[in-house]
Amino acid sequence: MLLIRCPFCEEERPEVEFRYAGEAHVVRAADPMGESDEAWAGYLYLRTNPKGWHAERWHHVHGCGRFFNAVRHTMSDRIVSTYKPGEARPEPDDAQGTGEAAR
After folding, report:
1. pLDDT digits (tens, 9 = 90+) for 56-71
2. Which domain holds residue 16?
3. What HEC string does 6-71 produce?
4. Strands 19-23 and 53-59
């Protein structure tokens, strides 16, 4: 079971309290009507799918009800940090990208 720390509640809770809400830091166009169909489709459907560290949005559904961001390793499911929206993405201290701290 994954334990996720909500940066608002400031405690680790089981993953069943949360819902994945997509990739973090995706910026919506200022004028969606001015976008081409291809650009708008890209905004709606195209996301990165990295093998390694990934910034994601999560929703604390059965807690405070707020959205927050998390940096998670997509292969190991290890979450190294969670942070509030608007804050800069923290970089994991992991040189190899294996989910384990560099030695």
Report:
1. 999 999 999 999 999 9
2. 3-27+39-83
3. ECCCCEEEEHHHCEEEEECCCCCCCCHHHCCHHHHHHHHHCCCCCCCEEEEEEECCCCCCCEEEEE
4. antiparallel
Enter the pTM of the model: 0.81
Answer yes or no: is pLDDT of 103 > 90.
Answer: no
CATH number at residue 70: 3.30.2270.10
Q: What is the maximal distance between C-alpha atoms in the chain?
A: 50
| pLDDT tens profile 65-93 | 999 999 999 999 999 999 999 999 998 87
